[in-house]
Amino acid sequence: MANIHQVAKYAGVSVATVSRVLNDQGTVTAKTRIKVEDAIKELNYEPSMLGRNLRNSESRILLILIPTISNPFYSEIIKGIETAALKHNYNILLCETDSNPERENIYFDLVRKKMADGIISMDPAVNMETLMKLAEHHSIIQCSEYALDSGIPYVTIDNEDAAYRAVKHLIRIGHEKIALINSDEKFLYARQRKLGYQKALRENGIEVQDNYMFHTQELGFDQGRQAMRKILDLDDRPTAVFTVSDLLAIGALKEIHQHGLLVPNDIAIVGFDKIDFSNMTHPTLTTIAQPMYQMGTIAANMLIDKIKGNEVDSIVLDHELIIRESTSG
Amino acid sequence: MANIHQVAKYAGVSVATVSRVLNDQGTVTAKTRIKVEDAIKELNYEPSMLGRNLRNSESRILLILIPTISNPFYSEIIKGIETAALKHNYNILLCETDSNPERENIYFDLVRKKMADGIISMDPAVNMETLMKLAEHHSIIQCSEYALDSGIPYVTIDNEDAAYRAVKHLIRIGHEKIALINSDEKFLYARQRKLGYQKALRENGIEVQDNYMFHTQELGFDQGRQAMRKILDLDDRPTAVFTVSDLLAIGALKEIHQHGLLVPNDIAIVGFDKIDFSNMTHPTLTTIAQPMYQMGTIAANMLIDKIKGNEVDSIVLDHELIIRESTSG
DNA sequence: ATCGTTCTTGTAATCGTTTACAAAAACATC
DNA sequence: GATGTTTTTGTAAACGATTACAAGAACGAT
């Protein structure tokens, strides 16, 4: 493979001139530009990002920290990030932490070692202390899940209000016994959504019952099933369930079917996220739509801005209640 | 941020010695090693991958080419790739082509420009000519979808046999009118699976009917619905459907339900891939299990081997028929 | 004390770019 | 043609690591 010196020699110019042609900057006569371009073609030259990156002290890579790629919620965000990144000539390094601190550290090291120019963190289980320390010298954006007092800019939705609206919808269509399948309350979004759930109940004179609130370790299908199983075992069985993720909802749905009950007639369900699959189940899921793609593009643009050295402000995006079959009884 | 020279100065040694400590090679006295390690700690030094990569002419990045991250089939493979890559100190650059040649080219450029050390291509729609040309000078592995005569090593399953077994299962449980929802036959796997479908029919004295075979542009839910709609419109309606992806199958399932019919009683369905969601539907999907995670790890190991300059052989992995509710009538 | 070995360290080139600065060329003006 | 101004090009120093090779230190044997 040819390098810039060989191109310069072949074209009979200096490396500086070749570089100028390459980057379309500085002034180059048409005649020399053509000489250089010919040489580039002739030698099949491709400029090495390794040299360029070293010289520019950048990697043009953004690190995306997610707990797992299996949750479609994240894939949709990633799409947004990728498109925005590409537009600015950045590429994305995918990092699944599996909420494993060891992996997390490997990935943090990548930005410490300049292999990445910044981080978009979407892992609720991320080690906040480390992240904050890292943020002192590196560009970081929080996406979806965040710590308010970290001083790290974030893009997210109003979780409390979203949950409030979801539960209010259930109340409006006549439900009073409404269960909550939440995730671990060590996560901010879990606490916020619980608040929304409680607020909706209280506002409508419905007592908040502790035995109607369940917690799961993860946001998956299996956890949804298990939680639903417990709910079905309750003496005073709820007529509706609000879950904090579509995957949980789909698990709950499955469990309800397995018990020979019908959704929404016997039990209504509301999910959260509006992943593609929420529209593929039978019945289709009522859910809260998060603007995932947009969250991705915005997060990426914020990060790139931050890398450039600009100040960036946190953003709260709109959500929307999508009413579908699982509550239309 | 400190660099190696500052560390050397602080420790009172040469950069060579620091480098030796960093990489645990060459000989260093215990005494000087400690001096260097102290300096590293004191200055908060982190070796820059940019310098190292340039010197070593490598990026330690593997490029993963997929059509879309939304299909869980790919996410599972990616998990395998990531784990294997990490074990060898490589990282993965995620590249969604959306089967868009322009995007593809952007990503190909990354390896031309040494931003990536190799490619794992999983995009059936990849431009084979370009890929083959690229393979002359770069390390490439095909995963799942492949071109046999490309000379590029691949890891995959026996698609024909898998389809054959799926359809034979349908025949065994009494079906004779079996439709096929296939994807575009420009893809090798589509042609192979069709062969398997036909072989199973012929072997059992069932005529292969052209009007029972359908093609879709993509492997998604919507395409599955549309194809199923056409099938339901047939005069002589099939009693079973074999689809070449779980997403297609889930779409078909939805459409059947919408028409007030039951699976498997009215129509049985077999999918392909065994994505997580195939177990979440109601009824659960009979499907062909591809060892996706394993395919990922193997592909990654093959690629890393190839990058090292070793010869690597293509591999055909085992598949398995998973019988579930959608055919257990 | 001298020599030969072995072990440890240092010097300086290298990887492939970009860019500040200097130098040369081109042009306009008188 | 001499001079000044502008435009175009070239020289050489970064960026931050690794590594041949050379040199120096340490050590035992004589």
Automatic annotation (TrEMBL), chains A, B:
Signal peptide: none
Superkingdom, taxonomy of origin: Bacteria
Residue intervals of the HTH lacI-type domain: 2-56
Entries under InterPro entries matching the protein: HTH_LacI (IPR000843), Lambda_DNA-bd_dom_sf (IPR010982), Peripla_BP/Lac1_sug-bd_dom (IPR001761), Peripla_BP_I (IPR028082)
Listed Pfam families: LacI (PF00356), Peripla_BP_1 (PF00532)
Gene3D superfamilies named in the record: 3.40.50.2300, lambda repressor-like DNA-binding domains
MF GO annotations: DNA-binding transcription factor activity; transcription cis-regulatory region binding
Record keywords, A-Z: DNA-binding, Transcription, Transcription regulation
Keyword Isomerase listed: no
Name of the protein this chain belongs to: Transcriptional regulator, LacI family
Native organism: Oceanobacillus limi
